[in-house]
Amino acid sequence: MYEKKEVMPFMMEFLYFPEDKTEYIPAVLSLILFVALAAIAMYFFVKVSKKQEKQADEQVRKIKEQQNKEQSNVPGE
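RESULT FIELD:
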């Protein structure tokens, strides 16, 4: 009356495990390449971020110095 259906073969069709393991070599090489490129990109992002942080700190320091000069030059206080 009730037929038991096999679910696993249908669900696992997208997986492919080659018998010849040399087929993994291009995938590993491309993985290494993309990880290396991502590390290089991250390095440059950090480098540029630190440079921008120094520029922002310098601008804040200049603005504070200018405000201090303006406050000390206000007559009548």
